[in-house]
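Schema walk-through. Below, the input block comes first and the output block second. Nothing else is stored per chain. Lengths vary across the set, and this one has 251 residues.
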Amino acid sequence: MTPGLAIANWFSHLNDTTGVNFTIFYDPYDRARFLNGFWVTLELSGVTIVGSVLLGIVGAWGQMSRQGWIRWLVEGYIQLFRNTPPLVQMYFFYFGLSALLPKMRNGVGFEEPLINGFAWACLSLICFAGSFNVEIFRSGIEAIPTATTEAAESLGFTRLQTYIQVTLPLALRICLPALTNNLVNLVKTTTLAYAIAVPELLYVSNQIWSDNENVPEMMLVLFVIYIALVGILVFAMHAWERALRRPGLGT
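--- output ---
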C-alpha cells in the first residue's frame, strides 16, 4: 500500500468512526478542486505582490517628480485607494468597469467578459496594496540624506539613475519591515476574490463544506494553510532583510 493510499484510508476511517470529515485527504474530487484553489491563491498572491511592489516603486518616483500634475495624480491615487474598502474597490472593478468593456464570444457562442474575475481581482488588489507601498517607499527615500543624492548627481547620474541605482537600494533596506507587513496583509486580503467568484482557497473550501457539511474541518485546514503561507513570506522577507543589511546604514 502506498503512503498516499494509507493516508486516504486513515482519514476515511477517521470519518467513519468519529465523524471528523477531512474529505480533501481521501476524496479525489474534493482534493482536486482544493488543490486547484490552492494554486489559484498562490498565483493571486504572487502576481499581486510583484505588481504592488512595482507600483509602489513607480509611485514613489512620481511623488518626487518636478511636474506638479504627476505629483497630484499620484497623491489622488493614494487617497482614493487607501481610504476606500478593498471589497468595494473589487466590486467597482468587476461590476463597474467590466460592464463598460465590450464582450467577447466564446467557442459555443455565449458572451463572456473581456477580462475575467482573476484579472480584475489582481488589478484591484495591486492598486489597493500599491497605494500603501508608495507611501512605504516614500518614507524610506525621505530617510536617505540629501548629501547622498547630491553626490550621485555630482558624478553625472541623471535623476532616474540616481533613483534606481542609489536612492532606491538604500531606501529598500530602511522600509523592508513596513513592506513585509503590507505584503502579509495583501496575502490575507486575497480571500476577497471569493466575492467575485474567483476559485481561490476560500471559494473552493466553501463549495466543499457546502457539499459535505464539514465546516470546522475545512476552516481548520484554511487556518493552517494561511499561517504557513504567511510564515513562508515573512521568513523570505526577513532573509532578504538580513542579506541587505550593511553596517552603518541604520539597519
